[in-house]
Amino acid sequence: MSVKFPVRTQGALRRRVTLVLSLALALALLLTATPAAFAQDAGEPVTLLLGQLATGDFTAGDSVTYIIDLPESTSYVITTGDEAEAAKFTLAITDRRGDEVFNDVFQTTQLDLKGGDHAFTLTANEDATLSLFVTGQLGELSAEYGDGALDNGSFVTAEDVEGVLYAELDIEETDFWQQAFLTASGDEGDSYSIYISGENAYASISDSSVEGPAVFWTQGGRYHVEITPVTGGNSLTAVVLLSGPVPALTVGEEMAGTLNPGTTQKAYRFNVDEAGLQFTVTLAADTTDVDMDMAVSINPTTDTWSSYNSDSNEVLTFVAPVAGEYFVRLYTRGEVAEPVDYTLLVEAGEAAPEIVPGETTWGVVPAGGKMVYTLPVDEANQLVTIAMVANPDVDLDLTGQIVDADGNSVASMSGYNSGSFEAMSQALQSAGLLQIEVNGSYASEETPFALRVTLEPAGAVAAQWATEATASSQFSDSGYTPTEATGAPNVAAASDNPLAWASKEPDSGEETLELTYAHRVAPTGVNIYESYNPGAVTRIEAYDADADEWSVLWEGEELTDEVMRVFSPALDSVDFLTDRIRLTLQMDLVSGWNEIDAVQLLGLP
C-alpha cells in the first residue's frame, strides 16, 4: 500500500512547503561556503538538477539561466533560503516550447508545470546573493518493503504514519561529488528516524526534530530509505535536496570562511596536478573555544589523512598518490554556538623523497615539524618493517600509511613511544604508495634521525628450503644429484658445479625436478637459484594432495643473458596448501647443462 501526496488547500500546502524547504535550504547553505562572485557569458545556460542548490553573488544587472529537466507534469516549488535576498531578483520561467509561464519578483512560489526542460532566468535588480532550490510533488512512500520511490528533488507528504515507510531513492548521476539531504518533519510533536543505505553510502538519524536531515555523499545511484515515526506521526513531509559541487580552493591561495551556529562540518575541493608532491593544509581559527578537526581524501566518503589537535589550529601534511581532485573537510566536536571565522590554505611542496628498502635514510626533522617519505609498493601481500632512531631525550613519533590508486587508506601503523626509538611492522595486503612520517611536534629543536625500511613478501616469513628432491634424470651418483637442490644454496659463483643438480644430458629436452618441503603452505613465491646456464625453467607447479593433481603456478619462458640468477616469477594463487613443488625445464632452450642449486618456497601456513 503506497502513501500518496495528499490533496491540500493552496494556503496549507504553501505554508508546509515554505517552512520545510526554507529550513532544509538553510541547513544546506550552512554546510557550504559562500561562493565566489558568479560570472556567466551571455546566453550560456547552466544545467541544474532538480533539488540541487544554486547559489552565487551577483551585482545589479547580472543574470543567470538555469536549465532544469522536470521529470513529469506536477506541482513544483521554487524556494529560497533568504526571502529578503530573493526579493532583489526577478524570476522568469520558460517552458520547453519557449512560452513564458512565470515572470515576477523571486519568492517561494508553487506552480503547476509540465514535464520537460524549463529555463529559470534570474536577474539581479541590485547587489544580492542568490540561493535557489526547485522541488516537485514527485514519488511516494510505501508501507511495503521494496515499494515506494523518491528522486532528487522529491517533495512527498503523508498523514497518520504508524509504522516504517519505505522508498528506493534514485539520484541522477554526476561527474562530481555532492551531498544529498533527506529531511523528514511534521507538525509539532512529530519526529522521525531516517535510515539510508546504498553503494558507498550510509546515513542515519535517530530523531529528526533534534538532528536535522540525514546527509551522505553521492555521485548518483540508488539508495534504500526507511523513515520511522519516533513521536507523533500525525503528519510527515519528506524532501530530497542536493548541495551541488562543494566550493573550490586554489592551491597556494588562502581562503577565509565562517562556521555558523548549528554547523558541524564544511567541505572544499582542490586539484592536484602531479602525483607524488607533498601538500600541507593549514587551518587557523580565531578562537580556542571550538575544537575543529580536518580530513583530506580523494573520495569524500572516507578520511585518508586526518588531523586531530585539541583546538582549531590544524596542520596536515600528506603526499598525493595520484593527480586529480581532492577534498578537505572540516569537523567540529558538537555544534557551534557563535560564528567562528577561520582561514584555510592548501600549499604544494616538492616531491617527497623516496626510501630505498634496506638502506639507511638520514634526515633532520625541524622543531615542531614533520618529514615525509614515500615507498611505492607494487605488489600485494608485502610485509613492511620501519625502524627509527634519534636522540632518546627528544620525543619523535613515527607513523606509516599505504594509500591505493583510488585514494583509500588500506593500512596504517604508528609508534608513539616517549623517546625516539620507534619500530613498527605491518602486512600490506594491497599495492599502493607507502607514506612514512617522522613527527617532531614535541621536539623543541631540530633533531637528526636515521630511518630504515625493509620490504619483503609476507610469505618470506615462512620461507623454507626443500628437504627432499627427485628428478627425471641426473648427471651422476657422486654429484649433480637432486639432493644437491635441497637446503640453502651453496654454489658461490656461476660454474659447472657438482653441488647443484644437473640432468643426465645437457640438451635433453624436457626434464623435471620435484621438491618436498617440511611444511604445507599456500604458495606465494618461489626463488629458484639457477647456478649455471639459467633460463630453462618453463613451468612451476604445486601438488594438491586432496585432489591428487598438480596445478600450474607459472608457465612461460624467461630467457636471460645472466650467467647465474635467482629466478622469482609472480605466481598464480591456488586455494590449497602444498608441500611439493615441481619444476619443468626445457633443456634445449639454453645450450649446455642447466643447473639448479636450491629452490626456496615462500607461502602462508
Account of the 3D structure:
The structure is a single chain. This protein has four domains: about 1-245, Jelly Rolls (Sandwich), CATH 2.60.120; about 255-350, Jelly Rolls; about 360-460, Sandwich (Jelly Rolls); about 465-605, Galactose-binding domain-like (Jelly Rolls, Sandwich). It has about 600 residues and is mainly beta. A hairpin with a 4-residue loop joins β40 (about 535-545) and β41 (about 550-555). The protein is built from three helices and 44 strands. Strands 37, 38, 39, 40, 41, 42, 43 and 44 form an eight-stranded antiparallel sheet that branches. A five-stranded mixed sheet has the order 2-4-9-6-7, with no helix packed on it. A five-stranded mixed sheet has the order 12-14-19-16-17. The protein is elongated. About 5% of the residues lie in helices and about 50% in strands.
Task: Give a quick precis of the structure.
The chain is mainly beta and 605 residues long.
Rg over CA atoms, rounded to whole Å, is 33 Å
Gap from first CA to last CA: 55 Å
Helix % is under 10%
Structural class: mainly beta
CATH topology of the largest domain: Jelly Rolls
**How many structural domains?**
4
CATH architecture of the largest domain: Sandwich
The strand count comes to 44
Question: What are the main properties of this structure?
Answer:
605 residues, mainly beta, Jelly Rolls, 4 domains, five-stranded mixed beta sheet, disordered N terminus
Per-chain topology:
Blueprint lengths: L1 E2 L6 H21 L15 E2 L6 E5 L4 E8 L3 E6 L3 H4 L2 E6 L5 E6 L3 E5 L2 E9 L3 E9 L4 E2 L6 E3 L3 E5 L5 E7 L6 E8 L5 E8 L2 E5 L2 H4 L2 E5 L2 E11 L3 E8 L12 E5 L5 E8 L4 E9 L6 E6 L7 E3 L6 E6 L4 E9 L7 E12 L8 E6 L4 E8 L4 E9 L6 E7 L5 E7 L6 E7 L3 E8 L7 E11 L6 E2 L2 E4 L38 E23 L4 E8 L4 E7 L9 E3 L10 E9 L8 E10 L1
